[in-house]
Request: fold
Amino acid sequence: MRPDDVPLLFQELSREFADVTDMSVAATGSLARGDHRTGPGGDVVSNLDLVHVVAEDADVPGVRHVVGRRMRRISDTFGIETTSVIARLPAFRQAGHAHYRISMRREWFCDGLELGLEGFELPGRDEEDPRTALAWMMQPVPYYLAKATSVDPTTNLAKARRAALRLADRFDLQLIRDDLDNLPRALRTLVAERGLTPLESTARYLDAPTHPAVAQLVRDAVFVESMGLSSTDSMVVLLPSASN
Reply:
């Protein structure tokens, strides 16, 4: 897919989900933010990331089926890997400061839950609830640090560093900038100095950063706190068919 095809992609998503009534769907990630990566030939190499919000646990199996079928057509048409996450509405609302929420494009491809533009708002302003916002915005750092223990350490350590810099810039945290080479120590210092209650995923990593299963433990915690579902129930990942 070429960069010029991104507006067409979003138009097609609106058409694909136009008749859906049991979920609200929006884009998140680099394509939503407009800072997606391109390869040497100029093609988009970033994934398409979507959030599908559902009201009830009972809706999840049906939504997974619908998402898989409709995103298969999108993935094949545009030749792009798609990652969909299903989020329960209570978790979606609580996770307002999570990275996927902050990255969302303020447009619903369908809004069956009638969340409206208010659905994109944070649950509280940073200055009104700074410690909660800070705890949520720490989440990607230990997530990528933990992931680096099991797969592609170079890429995931770089992602952890970028997430730490975003955190430092958002909250003017010099202690993070000064200790980018030892992010576990920097996070522990931040928690202690600010009197934070870290999210479960952060706590699991900081308690045992070298545990052989820490990547899976942290991943599981991130999905439960962010989506209200396990990663197995939440994620639908599709690659373009080989024939395309």
In short: The CA atoms of residues 2 and 41 lie 9 Å apart. The chain has 13 helices and five strands. The two ends are 12 Å apart (CA to CA). The first strand starts at residue 24 and ends at 28.
